Amino acid sequence: MTQLATVPTGVPAPTNARPRPTRTGGIDRARQRHGWLFVAPFTLVFITFLIVPLGYAFWMSLHTKTLAAGEHFSGFENYTRAFTDPEFLHGVAFVLRFSLVLIPIQMLVSLAAALVLDNLSSRLSKFSRLMIFVPYAIPVVIGAMMWGFLYSPRFGPIGEIFGMFGIDAPFMLSPDNVFAGLLNVVVWQWAGYYMIIIYAALRGIDTSVYEAARMDGANGWQIALRIKVPMISSALVLIFVFAIIGTLQFFTEPQILRSVAAGSIDASFTPNIYAYTLAFSYSQFNYASAISFALGVVVFIGSYVFLFLSRKRNGLS
Amino acid sequence: MKLKTHGGHPNRVMTAALWLGLGAITLSACSGGSDAADGTADPAAGGSDGTCTNTVVNPDAEQVTVWAWYPAFEGVVDLFNNSHDDIQICWSNAGQGNDEYTKFSTTIEAKSGAPDVIMLETEVLPSFIIRDALADLTPYGAADVESSYAPGVWADHSSGDGVYAIPVDGGPMGMLYRADVFEAAGIMTPPTTWDEFAAAAQQLRDSGSTALMTDFPTNGRAFNQALFAQAGSEPYVFGDTDSTEVAIDLNDDGTKKVLNYWYDLIDKGLVGTDDAFTTDYNTKLVDGTYAVYLAAAWGPGYLSGLAGADDTAVWRAAPMPQWDAASPVQVNWGGSAFAVTSQAKNPEAAATVAKEVFGTEEAWKIGIEEGALYPLWKPIAESEYFTALEYPFFGGQKINEDVFLDAAAGYEGFTFSPFQNFAYDQLTEELFAAVQGEKSPEQAADDLQGQVVDYATSQGFTVK
C-alpha cells in the first residue's frame, strides 16, 4: 500500500461549475497553444514514465517465455491462464475479502476520530490529531517490521500480557490469525491519513450550518450524522476509492512479514506479491506483466462498480 | 455546497474507473520498476559504470566488476589488487542472496547492467545457466584449477561439458550441540545415528529439561533438502545432456522416511518448527532453547555472530547423525562460487578474477578467520593450518579435523533444478501444511512432486 503515499492529499472541490460553452475565437486558440506549452513538461514525463512502460508491459504480457523453450507471441493466452490460475484467483479472493473487512473498519475509525477532533478545540486535540497521524508518517516497511517484532511470541508484549493471565499468547501471524494480524497493521498505518482527509473536509464546512441546525433543535449526534457526514460524502468516497485500490494492491506489509511467517504468507498471498515473485524469483516477466494487467482489470471493475453505485455522491456526475 | 441529487453520467464514471485501473497497473509496474532500476542505475550496485566500494590500486589496468556479499571481502579484494598489475577488481555488494539474484535477474532481462563476475550460491547455478546468463569457463582455463577442488565439488559447478563457476566456500554438514544441556540430561556422548538422536530427544524431555532437541524449520529450503539427500534422495537429473529434459523425483522413499521421522518428533513435541533465520530462531539457537544446531560448516561463524548468547553455554561439534552408521552419507548445505556473466566485457580477465581471487593462502586466511568461510580450495583445506585450527567458541576444539573435513571429503555432489526457487517455495508450503496437520508427510511429498512436475512441463521441459 505504499503507492497511496504518492496520491496528493486534499479533497476535490465538488465540480458544480459547468464548463463554459467553447468559443472558437483566435484568442482562445492561441491560449490553448500556450496551455499545451505549460503542460508539455508534465506530458513528457507522463509519457516516458507511465504510458511507454505501460505499453511495454502490455506488449510483454502478450508473449510467453519459458525456461526451456524460449519466447513466442501468444496473444491473450497469458490472460486466459491468469484468470484460471488458482494461485492468482486465490490472491484476488484474499484481497477482496480483506477489503470487505478492512475498509469499513478503517473508515469508521477515521470518521469517528475526525468527528471527535472536529468538535474539540483544546491543545489536547491538536496533540491527538498529530498522534493519530504519526503512524502514517512511519515508512510502511519500518511499520511492518516493527509489528513483526511486536507480534513475536518471544520478544513481543503480547506474549507478556497473555503470560500475566497464564495463557499462551496467540501468534498473530499463524495461518488462522494472519488475516487479523495484517488488518491491525493496515488500520494502524492508514486510519490517521484518512482521518486527516475527513478532518480537512469537515473544516471546510461553513459553521453557520451548525448554528442553523442547533436552532432547529438538533443535538450533537444529529449534527454529526445528519449534517456533517452527508456534507463530506465526497471526501468519504475519495478515501473509499483510495482504500480499495490500496488494498487490492496489498504488497508491502505481507512481503515484509513473509520473512517471519513464511508458512502463512506464501508466494501468491496477494496478486501483487504473486506478480513480484513470478518476475523476480521465477523469472517469468511476461506472465507477471499479464498478472499486473489482470489485476488492473479487477481494480477497474471494482472501481467502476463502486463509482457507479455511489454516483449520486461522488461528484463525478 | 450543494449535494448532487441527479444521477451520474455513466461515461464519466467509466472513464474515471478506467484511469484508476490503469493507475493500479502502473503503480504495480512502478514498484517493480524501482527494483529494476536498483540493478542498473544505482551506482553503489556496481554494473559497468558503477563506482567501486574498494580502492583501485592501479587505475590503468583492466577493471573487472564484481558483485559479492562475503563477509570481510574487502581485505581479499585489496590483496588481489595489490598483487595484480594487469587486472583490478571493482567490487560492490549488491545485496545478499535473493536480493542480489533479483538484481542480476533484472540485468539479464534488460541485457545490460550485469557485473563481470558474480558471487552465486551453488544451488542457483542451474537457474542462471539455463537463461544463458553465465559464461562457460572451459575456454578460459578452468581446467587449470580443477585439481585444486574435490571431484564432487567440481561437478556441482559444471553442467554437461561446461564449467560455469569456480567454487569458493562450501557447507559440509555437522552437528553442533550444547554439551552442558546434554550433560544435565545425562546424555554423555552425542548421538551418532538418527535412532540415537530420537532417543536423546526423548531423554532430554524425560530429564525435565525445558530445551527442545532442535528445530525443523519448514522454510529450511536447502537444509531440508540436505536431510532428504542423506537418506538417498536425488530429486533431479538435469543438465548433463539435453537442457530441455529434466527428471524429477521429490517423493522417493528416502524423502518420506526423513519426513516421517521428523514429523514424529514434532508430534511428540521434542522438536520445534520455528521458521529459520528469523530473530526468534536466532535467539533460540543461542539461549539454550535448542540443544542441537544441525549446521553447515559456515554455521559456527553464524552462531558466534549472534547476539544474546548465553555465556555459560558449552558448544561442541560432532559429525551428523547417520541413518546407517556402517555406511555414512555426507551432505552439504549451501556454499557459493564465482561465476563470469555472459555480459562480461572481457571474459578472460573476468575468468582470471574468478579463478584467483580466492586462490591464495593469504586470501583464505582472511576468509577463514574473519569471514568464517569453509574453503573448498584444497591447498588451504588440507593444510596443517586449517586442520589444526582451534576454535575458542568450541572451547578450543579442532572442529575441522573432528567433523567438517570428513564431511567435505565424503560429499559426492548434488544436482539442483533450473527452477530451484519455485521448488523451494512449494517445499516450504507443503512442509508447513503437514506441520499444520492439513496433510500427512507422505501426501505433502506427493503433492510437491505433482506441483513441480506441472511447473516443469509448463516451462517447456520434457519431464522424464
From TrEMBL, chain A:
Region (Disordered): 1-27
Membrane topology designation: Multi-pass membrane protein
InterPro entries, A to Z: MetI-like, MetI-like_sf, UgpAE/MalFG_permease
Pfam families: BPD_transp_1
Keyword Ribosomal protein: no
GO terms for cellular component: plasma membrane
Alphabetically ordered keywords of this record: Cell membrane, Membrane, Transmembrane, Transmembrane helix, Transport
Compositional bias ranges of the Low complexity kind: 12-24
GO biological process per UniProt: transmembrane transport
Keyword Cell membrane: yes
Major place of residence: membrane
Location of this chain's protein in the cell: Cell membrane
Transmembrane annotation, as ranges: 36-59, 94-117, 129-150, 178-202, 223-245, 287-309
Residue intervals of the ABC transmembrane type-1 domain: 92-306
Top-level lineage group: Bacteria
Family: Belongs to the binding-protein-dependent transport system permease family.
Protein name: Sugar ABC transporter permease
Species, as recorded: Pengzhenrongella frigida
TrEMBL record, chain B:
Name of a matching Pfam family: SBP_bac_1
Keywords, sorted A to Z: Signal
InterPro entries xrefs: Bact_solute-bd_prot1, SBP
Organism superkingdom: Bacteria
Signal peptide: 1-36
Name of this protein: Extracellular solute-binding protein
The organism of origin for this protein: Pengzhenrongella frigida
